[in-house]
Q: What sequence folds into this?
């Protein structure tokens, strides 16, 4: 771990994004709506392109202004979270494509995998995509330059002391 | 159509319940192992709640979050709480016997030595306090 400039990352926005992804994916499965899974993939893709949580607009425009969800701003690296969302987007895209081509088991399996990983992040505080990012950064891959915040296990939510 | 939705709802609920049940069973197994292997740590009953804390020297969240949390709780409870810290690299036998697969892992035992809670991963001070306060006669 090296000294690096951390940014203020609102983990409430990330958590809201994950919970919406979980909810919509489960709904897509229950209602057998591959198009809803594709919509989740699309929003995650747009979020990745814009470098924001895909469903962060729900938090920013609805939940936060009304005080329904309070900000949880921590000193953290946003890049691993973006990478995690991008990975989710790839899985969701592959899952949606599989569903549209009739490979239901593979398609819903990938959708449930995204649900499981998002749940682990939202409720367990462990971001698998972030852990993969930090693991890749150890190999000094171009574009993977960030180190975990000091004292934080790669992929784990930064400690409460990092709150700003 | 509605039958299909019903079946899928049942399936989704089953997946979620199985995941929750799996986690619960994993914790129950750990607590059972702790109960069965109490003698590896104590010759006699502790007669007060105990936090058994598994850590390793290179575990960053142990140093930055878990140990300060345990120190905080320990200060509040004073003599009414015993903390046993185990370095899993020095005592891999104990980690194996107790079924510890990651650090930090904390077990909360009651005064009779019964494992009542297990926390896989970081357990913050507030959580430890809540758990300790459910053990009879040990609220502060």
A:
């Amino acid at each position: 771990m090296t000294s690096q400039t951390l940014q203020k990352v609102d983990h409430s926005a990330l958590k809201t994004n994950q919970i919406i992804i979980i909810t919509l994916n489960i709904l897509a499965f229950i209602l057998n709506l591959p198009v809803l899974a594709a919509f989740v993939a699309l929003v995650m893709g747009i979020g990745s392109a814009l470098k924001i949580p895909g469903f962060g607009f729900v938090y920013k425009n609805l939940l936060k202004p009304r005080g329904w969800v309070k900000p949880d701003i921590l000193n953290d690296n946003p890049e691993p979270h973006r990478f995690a969302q991008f990975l989710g987007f790839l899985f969701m895209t592959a899952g949606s494509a599989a569903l549209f081509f009739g490979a239901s088991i593979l398609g819903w399996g990938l959708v449930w995998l995204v649900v499981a990983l998002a749940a682990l992040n939202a409720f367990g505080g462990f971001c698998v995509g972030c852990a993969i990012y930090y693991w890749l950064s150890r190999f000094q891959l171009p574009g993977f330059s960030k180190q975990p915040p000091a004292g934080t296990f790669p992929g784990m939510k930064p400690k409460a002391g990092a709150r700003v | 159509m509605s039958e299909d939705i019903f079946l899928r709802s049942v399936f989704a609920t089953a997946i979620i319940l199985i995941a929750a049940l799996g986690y619960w069973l994993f914790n129950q197994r750990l607590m059972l192992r702790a109960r069965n292997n109490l003698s590896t740590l104590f010759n006699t009953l502790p007669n007060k709640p105990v936090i058994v804390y598994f850590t390793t020297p290179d575990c960053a969240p142990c140093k930055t979050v878990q140990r300060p949390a345990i120190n905080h709780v320990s200060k509040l409870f004073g003599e009414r709480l015993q903390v046993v810290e185990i370095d899993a690299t020095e005592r891999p036998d104990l980690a194996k016997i107790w079924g510890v697969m990651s650090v930090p892992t904390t077990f909360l035992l009651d005064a009779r030595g019964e494992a009542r809670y297990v926390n896989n991963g970081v357990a913050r001070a507030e959580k430890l306090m809540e758990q300790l306060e459910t053990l009879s006669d040990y609220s502060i």
